[in-house]
């Protein structure tokens, strides 16, 4: 059994890979952007991390999207639909949640194959 931790810190690792399965959670960097733009930016961050880990969005198995305002659901879906790999949509759920940084409109957790 191998566990690879990318950019580990005392509290958490940026990415964890176990048995060729990638675990990652992304948040937006531009906290002044609207929900659609924060979602698109977060998905682009996920693309970069998956590439670094030797994978891509077509290999995402599961995605959990944490959305602060339910009114942002259509905007979030617009960004998601433009991004998701055609024919390779993962299992997905969206949860309304109060995120720790009040400027976050979204946080996305993924599990992907390598």
Characterise this structure.
This is RidA family protein. It comes from Rahnella contaminans. This protein has helices at residues 35-52, 73-83, and strands spanning 3-8, 13-18, 21-26, 60-67, 91-96, 106-113. The chain is α+β, with helices and mostly antiparallel strands and 114 residues long. It has one domain (1-111): 60s Ribosomal Protein L30, Chain: A. A six-stranded mixed β-sheet has the order 1-2-3-6-4-5. Strand 2 and strand 3 form a beta hairpin. Helix 1 packs parallel to helix 2. It is globular. The model has no long low-confidence stretch (mean pLDDT 96).
Cross-sheet strand order for the largest sheet: 1-2-3-6-4-5
Task: Please provide the ordered H/E string of secondary-structure elements.
Answer: EEEHEHEE
Give the radius of gyration. Answer: 14 Å
**Which blocks of ≥5 consecutive residues have pLDDT under 50?**
none
The CA-CA distance between the termini, in Å, is 15 Å
CATH architecture: 2-Layer Sandwich
CATH topology: 60s Ribosomal Protein L30, Chain: A
| CATH class call | Alpha Beta
The 3D shape can be described as globular
């Amino acid at each position: 059994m191998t566990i690879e931790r990318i950019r580990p810190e005392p509290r958490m690792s940026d990415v964890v890979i176990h048995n060729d399965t990638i675990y990652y959670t992304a948040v937006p960097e531009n906290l002044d952007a609207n929900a659609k733009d924060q979602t698109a930016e977060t998905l682009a961050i996920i693309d970069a991390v998956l590439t670094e880990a030797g994978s891509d969005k077509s290999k995402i198995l599961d995605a959990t999207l944490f959305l602060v305002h339910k009114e942002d659901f259509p905007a979030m879906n617009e960004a998601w639909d433009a991004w998701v790999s055609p024919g390779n949509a993962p299992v997905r759920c969206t949860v309304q949640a109060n995120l720790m940084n009040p400027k976050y409109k979204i946080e996305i957790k993924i599990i992907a194959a390598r």
